[in-house]
Amino acid sequence: MDDLELLRYSRHILLDEIGIEGQQRIHDSHVLIVGAGGLGSACAPYLVAAGVGRLSIMDHDLVELTNLQRQILHTTNSIGKPKVASAKAMLNQLNPLVEIIPIQEKATLETFKNKITDIDIVVDCTDNFKTRHLINKLCVSHKKPLVSGAAIQWDGQVSVYNLQDNHAACYACIFPEEEAFEEIACSTMGVFSPLVGLIGSLQAAQVLQLITQSGEPLINQLFMWDARHSSMTKIKLKKEPHCKVCSQP
């Protein structure tokens, strides 16, 4: 890092738990965010402001008017444009020192597996179980840490799946793919605008803690936030010994 970078990130460097070494690890990292919607809109700016060296953002959607109530990466002028292009334009202004890699593709087995090898941490900011399970499987097979978030109506949750640890739970341990979870879309049920900001920011915090090895990330824990009642709950998670994803020989 040069003198300007040391000045830009000085408030992180002043933290004993991060310091210059931790900031250098942030600088050297490559993070993938899947989803440039509400959660990604809150997560990405904090990672970029913190100086993550490379940030890949994958999303195939275009910006719509209804997104603007909560997806603060995008503006009225972005309507009709690819979300990843809109995100890159905003993030480049926030911190031109970070390399932003837009990936305007849907998260599928083929598109995802070709991009995960040089990623340090994957952040799941998607909104459906099918994609979450796909991301989880690939993170398990490539042993990539996964920071998972979800938000709908007034309720949000965050967890960290440390898939480099064979004894840690994966997403499928907690939400088995074969179980029929009700799929709820914010287009029909709504979502409280600041909720996605809170959950996405927490995801960014987990990523930075993992990179700098500081604090106590939510590994094997599920953090849940009820915005309606301003209450939080933390549940301990454990590996499912018969999980079809992470417990296979």
In brief:
The chain has 249 residues and is α/β, with parallel strands linked by helices. It has helices at residues 3-8, 10-13, 19-27, 38-50, 83-94, 109-113, 129-142, 171-174, 186-189, 193-212, and strands at residues 30-34, 54-58, 99-103, 121-124, 146-152, 155-161, 221-226, 231-236.
Provide structural commentary.
By secondary structure, the chain is of the alpha/beta class. It has a single domain (3-236), classed as Rossmann fold. It is built from ten helices and eight strands. It has helices spanning 3-8, 10-13, 19-27, 38-50, 83-94, 109-113, 129-142, 171-174, 186-189, 193-212; strands spanning 30-34, 54-58, 99-103, 121-124, 146-152, 155-161, 221-226, 231-236. α4 packs parallel to α10 (193-212). The radius of gyration is 17 Å and the shape is globular. The N and C termini lie far apart (43 Å). The mean pLDDT is 93.
Major sheet strand order:
3-2-1-4-5-6-7-8
State the helix count: 10
Helical fraction equals 25-40%
CA-to-CA gap between the ends? 43 Å
Order of helices and strands: HHHEHEHEHEHEEHHHEE
According to DSSP, the number of beta strands is 8
Low-pLDDT runs: none
Average per-residue pLDDT, rounded, comes to 93
Rg calc: 17 Å
Structural class estimated from helices and strands:
alpha/beta
User: What count of domains describes the coordinates?
Assistant: 1
CATH superfamily: NAD(P)-binding Rossmann-like Domain
Question: What is the CATH level 1 assignment?
Answer: Alpha Beta
Major β-sheet annotation: 8 strands, mixed
User: Could you tell me the strand content as a percent range?
Assistant: 15-25%
Overall form:
globular
Q: Could you say what the CATH topology is called?
A: Rossmann fold
The CATH architecture assignment turns out to be 3-Layer(aba) Sandwich
